[in-house]
Design the sequence.
């Protein structure tokens, strides 16, 4: 485990595997932690040999949970940019799952010097409508903050299943809620528009049975769409071989 202080008393932490440059930086989704979700894939023979940082965003996993942090997509991206700069990393390959994909897009748009290429793993690219009982961020964002903290959190934790609950329990409750609210609200311009306008190599991994909406627009803008068979939303867990092969085969150098 490594750590860097991004402001007095506030640290982002990660698990690192040494290797060659350019580094790969792995970002987790909402209520998750990078090492439990990515470790098996990082250790796959197709992906070994590269410096790999499985980073936890503020409020999640082993990173700190500052009370005064906004937990917006822009806030997460800016905090990561500070961390990467202090580590001494520039132009890294960023691999982001779900919410981590949205944060990766914002990071590339706001701090282009930090990002060499993007691998987006079934990412959020569009705003969504909150709905009580819906899975993930939409269900969490349907609560008011006070209601979520008082009783909604326990209900969500019970409903998400044991794998997600194992890492969701590590998240700060305010961080989980505020990140979910901002994720469904989206950015302005939207994450999709930011993604379309980026001029770096971009790969969009999706389950074979669930191609992304607006696929033609994405491919026209140069985004590589890669379907990974036998997977749901957690592609890197459901099919480690397929995920590793999809990442390793992309020509992401610029």
Sequence:
């Amino acid at each position: 485990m490594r750590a860097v202080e991004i402001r007095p008393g506030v640290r982002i932490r990660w698990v690192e595997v040494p290797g060659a440059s350019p580094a790969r930086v792995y970002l987790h989704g909402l209520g998750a932690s990078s090492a439990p979700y990515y470790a098996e894939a990082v250790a796959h023979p197709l992906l070994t040999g590269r410096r790999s940082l499985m980073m936890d965003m503020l409020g999640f996993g082993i990173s700190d949970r500052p009370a005064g942090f906004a937990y917006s997509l822009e806030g997460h991206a800016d905090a990561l940019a500070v961390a990467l700069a202090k580590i001494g990393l520039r132009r890294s390959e960023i691999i982001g799952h779900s919410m981590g994909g949205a944060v990766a897009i914002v990071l590339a748009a706001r701090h282009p010097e930090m990002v060499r290429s993007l691998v987006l793993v079934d990412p959020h690219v569009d705003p969504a409508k909150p709905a009580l009982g819906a899975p993930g961020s939409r269900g969490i964002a349907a609560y008011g903050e006070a209601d979520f903290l008082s009783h909604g959190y326990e209900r969500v934790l019970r409903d998400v299943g044991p794998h997600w609950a194992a890492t969701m329990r590590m998240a700060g409750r305010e961080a989980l809620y505020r990140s979910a609210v901002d994720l469904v609200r989206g950015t302005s311009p939207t994450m999709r528009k930011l993604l379309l306008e980026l001029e770096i190599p971009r790969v969009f991994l999706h389950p074979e049975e669930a191609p992304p909406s607006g696929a033609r627009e994405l491919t026209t803008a140069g985004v590589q769409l890669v379907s990974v068979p036998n997977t749901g939303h957690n592609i890197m867990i459901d099919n480690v071989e397929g995920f590793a092969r999809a990442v390793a085969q992309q020509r992401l150098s610029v």
Remarks:
- The first helix runs from residue 34 to 42.
- The chain has a mean pLDDT of 95.
